[in-house]
Amino acid sequence: MSTSRIARGTSKIANSVSSKSEPLRATQGRTLMHYGFGAEHPVAAGKRAVKQELGDESGSELSSVPSDLDENLEPVDGIVTSLHKRKRGAGTPTSETTTQKDIVTTQTPPRKRLALGVEPDTVAANDKAKKSRRTPAKKIVGAHGKVKVEPPPNWEEVYNLTKEMRSKVLAPVDTMGCESLAEGYRSPRDQRFQTLISLMLSSQTKDTVTAAAMRNLQENLPGVCACGLTLESILAVSPTLLNELIRMVGFHNNKTTFIKKTAEILRTSFKGDIPDTIEGLVSLPGVGPKMAYLTMSAAWGRDEGIGVDVHVHRITNLWGWHKTKTPEETRASLEAWLPRDKWHEINKLLVGFGQTICLPVGRKCGQCVLSERGLCPGAVVGKEVRRVKKVKEEVVGGKPVKQEVEVEVERAVKAEDVNGDAVPDMEDVGGPPQSRRKSRTLAS
Q: What span, in angstroms and rounded, lies between the C-alpha atoms of 152 and 35?
């Protein structure tokens, strides 16, 4: 009853002003909005729908109201929103000149708008992000309990594109990797020993530094019969001089001890040669699974496993091939499905990729084809700044004073974050994070 009375009152107001001059149209629109009847009001929409269904739209009580009355008007004192609250973004008029970026940024949540807004082409960035979902390898149990691992669906495309990118750029591992540091004119036994020593030196050390240390040993290590890097010269050299020759590598003190003990074990237990089994190699001091598998491949030419270092572990997790916590877990995961003919090359492939494009800090996702084609969930598509509050204690005037410090921290936004699949990592994006601090004194 009340709705019908209001509708009749509205019709009278519309008929009374229809014969007046054009400037009154704005007043008429505001009057209708005062009563809560706009173009989107549910009562008006319901009446219009009934008339359309009956085939008599001209009989609508609001048919005499011009369609553009409230097109450019604002609600008066919030009356419209108080009578009927709309969902955010619903019923918002858009002009013909509205761009696709405006549409995306008004219809997406704040986190997605932030991630999408950093790309020049917002819609294209959104499309790429939708493709960048993690699709790891899956274990499938057969009828007789046999477990089969199904590889990631796009792994071959990702692998081949990475090989193509690597073929166009020269990485330090290509010229100074451990496989290429042994002297070619030495005997096979001495070459195998030099390969093992280079891998022992490479732990926690860049390839360029490892190459310099190896060159220092090969040229300046005194030998029994002739100078050079051999098992006999390592046994004869003093720990002090050996430590001095490899001082540029990381943890050189520990590596000096490991190399001296390894030389003694090789002389007494392996007839002066390096072991030809994984078990024998990992029994040596300072030799882990990664070094053992790489040594077997480079020194003995047998691919019995994948040498997984920090680059292989980090990049394959970024690709979403698996979700592992340690390099050993990554090795087991890869060996379960990766074809054996790729076990030798994948280490050098991804190490060089991690040295040139997919860097540990400040990845060059703008130069990566995988990011361009939406194949890497870990691709950095932008950055966001968050404020973090911390309580800091300082001594002022001899008394401890607690201060609340507000720090703005820069976070990397990955492609997978746009889909809500993960939380962005704390990571530097192309430079040091910008931070500003605001503090206020608290009670001590």
A: 60
Please indicate, yes or no, if residue 143 is contained in any of the structural domains: no
Where among 52, 83, 114 does a domain terminate?
83
DSSP 188-246: HHHHHHHHHHHHHHHTTS-HHHHHHHHHHHHHH---SSS-SS-HHHHHHS-HHHHHHHT
Give me the active site residues, please: 290
pLDDT, tens only, 323-382: 999 999 999 999 999 999 999 999 999 999 999 999 999 899 999 999 999 999 988 877
- For residue 114, the surrounding DSSP H or E stretch is helix 110-117
The answer for residues whose C-beta is within 8 angstroms of residue 156's C-beta and 6 or more apart is none
Three-state DSSP class for residue 74: coil
3-class SS of residue 140: strand
* Whole-number pLDDT of residue 124: 47
CA–CA dist 342, 290 (Å, integer): 16
Residue 208 Cα distances to 17, 59, 133, 169, 171, angstroms: 86, 85, 36, 17, 10
Query: Which range marks the domain in which residue 419 is found?
Result: 378-441
* Kind plus residue range of the DSSP H or E element containing 127: helix 122-131
